[in-house]
Design brief:
homodimer; 300 residues; Nucleotidyltransferase, domain 5; five-stranded mixed sheet; globular
């Protein structure tokens, strides 16, 4: 009988969909994947059952990585995630280890993205690097000496809630001036709609497109946001002197014009000793499989 | 013949004085110490010779730790320190290893202070902690998983140059709004003198004393500085979720009223998930031996 291929199961739990897939341990490629709306699963146990049934037994499962909002590595649980149908504390690690009998690793989305970049993306040769995710919110993952920093309670890397403007824009966290209140896709949209009187909705992509075409309101929003993001990233370098910063997702990955402007603001705000030393790049993993690979990388 | 006691030589190189001492490896106490004005030594070699002669051979030397401005752990050199008589790159590690034949570890003052707090002070049970030094400048040392974070080039932990106020007060680094431009002793003095028209000099301690006595100018300066410091420390928690922050030196260690006010600003600016979880304390090592113990701790 032929030896079965060893695989890691990656699960990306989002507010709308759950994506899951099997990644070959040797070839580091997705061998199979699927996704379902999260509302189909009343509990995490129901999700585990459904995945077990769908993935079949063609491969030998050796580990599971789960990326989830408010996922805590130390406890293996989701803790009070505001955007999920499952409330309170959900002991994912326990549930999935009981079902599958293999080691399970849980972390939040941004940490999973950082691990993904380290295992599958551009950061493999950068033991000190920083991942910033720009999506509905702003998250971060910090690598020191080739290891993800989890902190004293598993809650490290919340740079989206670094307050970058004293008494600035209100943030969902209840405080003011957080980076997330400026640089998330949601914030980009809000800032544009505040200027555009007769408009009720727009996407972050549209704001970027309008800026590229010279729309003055979009220009004002984008230039302000890019200045604040570049300034913040330059500040973050003083923390652990990374050799690379990766921007993941959202509007920052809409082409070289955007990255070039962010890079300019970043370099001109850097402390002299760091200038010209830090690569600032878009993620290699952008696209639909990024979160899945990120989640799976926790199991590698 | 009795076995000699094993000791670590700690050397604290400052802009004015060099302090050096022998710390027992077992008892972790200073067994002998001395200091000299740095101008007495034309070169680092001359310093090494003088220390060798003074310390004699009563003990068995097993390691050397050196804290120095712009000291780089990876290269073991002082690199272009503006306030030292020795210019350019000074290969301390090489010079002292050649002279003494034991391993030599070099780092900057703030990293040395952080190591000192970990080895001799309050942070021994806090593998994730942050040290902020408030002196002529503001420095920092970051511990993750019980290890000092040095970064990709040995230049990690420059939180004194975290820009905390956009377009704020000018900083010696050439940029604006750095924490150092508000919270260093120098900045405290400058801010007071800007308000006090007829005064030419004052000490940071005097500013604190005047505040305690109700002087309105001192109150304005201190309240603003404490608000900015507390806000900044709350921000820093989002980096690596430390369980302890230690404030070392200068005005922050002038009693419980100051610490209480800093703690209040800190707690009220924290992201909710961190509230009540982070001890904010003054260093245990404050005083004349702190820098010496810090330097020596690099050798432990």
């Amino acid at each position: 009988m032929e030896k079965q291929k060893q695989v890691i199961l990656g699960i990306d739990i989002g507010g709308t969909n759950v994506a899951f897939g099997l990644i070959g341990k040797e070839e580091k490629k997705i061998l199979w994947k699927d996704s379902e709306p999260i509302v189909q699963f009343a509990t995490a146990e129901a999700l585990a059952d459904a995945i077990a049934q769908k993935m079949g037994c063609e491969f030998e499962l050796v580990g599971i990585g789960i990326g989830a909002p408010n996922g805590n590595f130390y406890t293996g649980s989701i803790e009070f995630a505001p955007n999920l149908p499952w409330k309170g504390i959900v002991p994912l690690k326990q549930i999935f280890e009981a079902k599958f009998g293999v080691p399970v690793f849980v972390s939040n989305d941004a940490n999973a993205a950082a691990c993904g970049e380290f295992v599958f993306g551009k950061a493999g040769n950068h033991p000190h690097f920083l991942m910033i995710t720009l999506g509905t919110g702003v998250g971060s993952g910090l690598f020191v000496d080739g290891k993800l920093v989890l902190g004293s309670d598993g809650m490290a890397g919340e740079l989206g809630h670094f307050m970058v403007v004293p008494n600035g824009r209100p943030c969902g966290c209840g405080r003011n001036g957080c980076l997330e209140a400026y640089a998330s896709s949601t914030a980009l949209i809000k800032q544009y709609l505040e200027k555009a009187d007769n408009m009720e909705s727009i996407t972050a992509k549209d704001v970027v497109d309008r800026w590229q075409k010279g729309d003055p309101m979009a220009t004002e929003v984008m230039e302000n946001t890019i200045e604040i993001l570049g300034w913040s990233l330059a500040n973050f370098v003083t923390i652990h002197s990374p050799s690379m910063i990766v921007l993941f997702g959202g509007w920052a990955q809409s082409g070289e014009k955007v990255m070039g402007k962010i890079r300019h603001s970043f370099e001109s705000n850097l402390l002299k000793i760091y200038r010209g030393k830090v690569e600032l790049v878009p993620s290699l993993l952008a696209g639909s499989d990024a979160a899945l690979l990120g989640a799976a990388s926790l199991g590698f």
